[in-house]
């Protein structure tokens, strides 16, 4: 990801955009270069150019806009503004970098020509794009291996960026390349006058003193010196800076990392703030699925400003440039519908992931958090260039409030906006596979989900949340981070389960989790950690007689009749075994395959009520809208499971827009025959439109679960309202 805060001495920055595209070619023609510096116009907004992920559909150029450089809104519904198949040789593009030309009115964009599904060493090309209005673009593919001799061992060409060289009076493109066993190195070459080809042989730009890998370069000119931000690869990967008096060489390393996180990062991008002192350094914290924004005045000291930043999209490796009022108004007019303006609501009381807009009916529903005063509620619509929002009143207790959106150059539109205290979903953000306990030690409820929102279920950490009433939840932070805390499995942190046990008079917490499709266990003295992994997987092989499936989705249960504890797991099969007294090993000879019927897919959960053991499980695939929960009963923790004829516990409710209801746990209010089901479902309202991606953009909900007089479970209706809360009337 990149962002050039370009030639500040010339008052220049970067920028780009486009839905109509010109012809794509492997080479360009020559012409006379006559470009001259134009007077600087007043900038009043920011354009963010980015891509969103590692699937082919996500490897496309997208745009977002901001009035202040902190609050960004996606344009075109966060869909591509260019068709990657039309502009690239691979069908996908990544790492977009945009630049405003020296003439002040031409924009240049460069992107990696790559589809990650083909492998990280599969591309040899970049795409050069050019525009005069940020709307219409022409493009050319430059294949380095074909274009320049001596690149037979070239494996990849990554993350190009552009900067204007005032001495050469040319546009310099710099990028990383890897040849054979050599590390990735940053090179540069000059573009031809039409910006359709590279006219000079690539030369190495930065020479690492350790010959270490360097990628994702971003050059910033400050106080007459060029600052090259780049990512180191391998051990201690992160962002460093090298400084030179000359654009094309002589960079001296400042040997320290400047990212303000211990997590791996990439794609440093720097942009100058328009009406404030200083710069923003942003980067992709790619293992956590988030961006981090930091602020600096000297390019040496950086302060995290994440709490000041909002985005309604998840960017990957992008660039921000300042734009004029005229440019921003054109972008808004082209790609921002009136309804999307209202989806920018940012009030702290909102459940921001669950705003529901009906563009046809011109209605918007705003779900708010518990305790919100709806008689004087301000949704906090973000100020956007060329947009005016006015309202009829502010009291949502009396019904819908009318808001009128005026976009310059378009007819005004009025929307009826309602607000209501909805308790589902219960956690802010994307989470799934929730497991819940009541802690006797602390007298609180604790919730442990899969951290979701990562393409292909690629999350690597677990968090805990606490509550006294099952409605108001506190984020207790990360309790187990696979890359840092687990030696045997560092990927796919899925579907945890936890239990509180009193051992020798002391409460202990045993946290069972999935990592790399194996089941592990970590132990702590507190429900919020820190948890210490046992050092090896507890389950890493299929049970005897099972020929397919995965070792995932653990569940732990203590039999109230005997005090013995049991572990259950499996995808494609259900297995159970008794745990030894140490809770970190299985009792030999007790493992049993317990698959109840053909509807079983995964997500076993066991509870005990009135002498009966209930086994709940998920049917279908988590990517399916029909993912749902069924149950059976048994007379013992490892006994034969009887499946009732009507055994559906919870399923989708299309009338309410609720889909993919599955992978649950259940909590009983201590001392009462009062039960609640905790489950995940597709993100509302977007999930049903997301295809397979709905399966890793899930949210957690809680609804009441009741039993019939004969002990059978009543089918639960999933709701947006949720439960009232245990301490609320």
From TrEMBL:
It comes from the Bacteria. Transmembrane segments: none annotated. InterPro entries: Glyco_hydro_43, Glyco_hydro_beta-prop_sf, Glycosyl_Hydrlase_43_Enz. Residues 1-19 form the signal peptide. The keyword Ion transport does not apply. Keywords: Carbohydrate metabolism, Glycosidase, Hydrolase, Polysaccharide degradation, Signal, Xylan degradation. Belongs to the glycosyl hydrolase 43 family. Residues 18-38 are annotated as: Disordered. Pfam families: Glyco_hydro_43. This is Family 43 glycosylhydrolase. The lineage of its organism: Bacteria, Pseudomonadati, Bacteroidota, Cytophagia, Cytophagales. Residues 27-38 have a biased composition (Basic and acidic residues).
């Amino acid at each position: 990801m990149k962002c050039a805060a370009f030639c500040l001495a010339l008052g220049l920055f970067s920028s780009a955009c486009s839905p109509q595209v010109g012809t794509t070619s492997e080479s360009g023609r020559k012409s006379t270069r006559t470009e001259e510096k134009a007077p600087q116009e007043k900038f009043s907004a920011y354009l963010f150019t980015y891509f969103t992920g590692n699937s082919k559909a996500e490897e496309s150029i997208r745009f977002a806009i901001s009035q202040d450089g902190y609050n960004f809104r996606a344009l075109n519904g966060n869909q591509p503004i260019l068709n990657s198949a039309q502009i690239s040789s691979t069908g996908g593009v990544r790492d977009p970098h945009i630049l405003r030309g020296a003439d002040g009115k031409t924009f240049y964009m460069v992107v990696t020509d790559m589809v990650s599904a083909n492998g990280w060493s599969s591309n040899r090309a970049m795409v050069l794009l050019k525009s005069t209005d940020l709307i219409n673009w022409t493009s050319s593919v430059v294949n380095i291996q074909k274009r320049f001799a001596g690149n037979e061992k070239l494996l990849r060409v990554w993350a190009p960026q552009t900067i204007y060289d005032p001495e050469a009076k040319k546009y310099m493109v710099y990028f990383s390349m890897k040849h054979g066993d050599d590390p990735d190195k940053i090179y540069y070459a000059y573009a031809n006058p039409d910006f359709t080809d590279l006219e000079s042989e690539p030369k190495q730009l930065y020479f690492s003193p350790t010959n270490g890998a360097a990628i994702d370069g971003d050059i910033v000119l400050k106080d007459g010196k060029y600052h090259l931000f780049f990512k180191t690869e391998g051990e201690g990967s992160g962002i460093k800076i090298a400084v030179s008096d000359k654009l094309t060489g002589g960079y001296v390393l400042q040997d320290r990392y400047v990212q303000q996180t211990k997590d791996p990062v990439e794609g440093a991008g720097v942009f100058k703030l328009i009406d404030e002192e200083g710069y923003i350094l942003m980067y992709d914290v790619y293992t956590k699925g988030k961006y981090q924004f930091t602020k600096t005045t000297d390019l040496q000291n950086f302060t995290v400003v994440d709490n000041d930043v909002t985005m309604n999209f998840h960017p990957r490796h992008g660039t921000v440039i300042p734009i004029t009022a005229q440019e921003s108004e054109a972008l808004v007019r082209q790609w921002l519908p009136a309804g999307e303006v209202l989806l920018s609501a940012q009030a702290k009381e909102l459940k921001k992931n669950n705003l529901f807009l009906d563009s046809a009916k011109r209605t918007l529903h705003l779900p708010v958090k518990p305790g919100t005063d709806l008689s004087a509620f301000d949704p906090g619509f973000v100020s956007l260039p060329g947009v005016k929002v006015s309202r009829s009143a502010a009291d949502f207790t009396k019904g819908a409030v009318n808001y009128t959106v005026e976009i310059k150059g378009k007819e005004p539109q009025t929307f009826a906006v309602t607000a209501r205290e909805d308790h589902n979903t219960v956690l802010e953000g994307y989470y799934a596979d929730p497991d819940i306990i009541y802690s006797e030690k602390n007298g609180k409820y604790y919730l442990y989900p899969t951290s979701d929102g990562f393409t292909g279920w690629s999350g690597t950490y677990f968090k805990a949340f606490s509550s006294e009433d099952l409605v108001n939840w506190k984020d207790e932070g990360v309790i187990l981070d696979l890359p840092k805390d687990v030696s045997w499995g560092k990927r796919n942190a899925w579907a945890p389960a936890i239990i509180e046990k009193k051992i020798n008079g002391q409460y202990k917490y045993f946290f069972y989790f999935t990592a790399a499709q194996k089941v592990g266990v970590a132990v702590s003295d507190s429900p919020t950690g820190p948890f210490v992994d046992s050092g090896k997987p507890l389950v890493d092989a299929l049970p005897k007689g099972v020929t397919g499936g995965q070792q995932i989705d653990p569940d732990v249960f203590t039999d109230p009749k005997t005090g013995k504890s049991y572990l259950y797991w499996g995808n494609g099969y259900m297995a159970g075994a008794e745990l030894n007294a140490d809770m970190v090993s299985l009792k030999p000879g007790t493992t049993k395959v317990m698959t109840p019927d053909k509807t079983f897919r995964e997500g076993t959960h066991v509870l005990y009520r009135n002498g009966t053991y209930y086994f709940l499980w998920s049917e279908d695939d988590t990517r399916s809208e029909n993912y749902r929960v069924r149950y059976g009963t048994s007379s013992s923790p490892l006994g034969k499971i009887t499946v009732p004829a009507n055994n559906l516990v919870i399923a989708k409710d299309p009338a309410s827009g609720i889909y993919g209801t599955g992978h649950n746990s259940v909590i009983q209010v201590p001392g009462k025959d009062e039960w609640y089901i905790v489950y995940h479902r597709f993100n509302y309202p977007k999930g049903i439109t997301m295809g397979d991606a709905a399966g890793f953009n899930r949210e957690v909900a809680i609804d009441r679960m009741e039993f019939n007089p004969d002990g059978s479970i009543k089918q639960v209706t999933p709701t947006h309202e949720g439960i009232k809360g245990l301490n609320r009337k």
